[in-house]
Design goal:
Blueprint lengths: L17 E4 L2 E4 L8 E7 L3 E7 L5 E7 L4 E4 L2 E4 L1
Antiparallel strand pairs: 1-2, 3-4, 4-5, 6-7
Length: about 80
């Protein structure tokens, strides 16, 4: 880039930190991938998807990644 700054590509696996609790994405749980699908970012920091409830119905769910995901020296980190 013209200013001498070159962004690094980084990634983070969210599955160890986010779980599906009866159709709601929640921090400090894990394995949301097992019962959620069609996940994507909505804007720069909101993860949205469809998650299964205990009653086996699928509902829209979201979680704000800014609550616990930070950029620490170019590395996405759970805090």
């Amino acid at each position: 880039m013209a200013d001498g700054y070159t962004p690094n590509q980084t990634e983070i696996n969210l599955n160890p930190y986010i779980g599906n609790i009866d159709g709601e994405l929640m921090w400090q749980h894990d394995n949301f991938i097992a019962t959620c699908g069609n996940t994507e970012l909505s804007g720069p920091s909101v993860l949205v998807g469809e998650c299964e409830k205990r009653a086996q119905q699928w509902v829209q769910a979201e979680i704000n990644l800014d609550d616990h995901i930070s950029n620490i020296n170019g590395i996405l980190t759970y805090q």
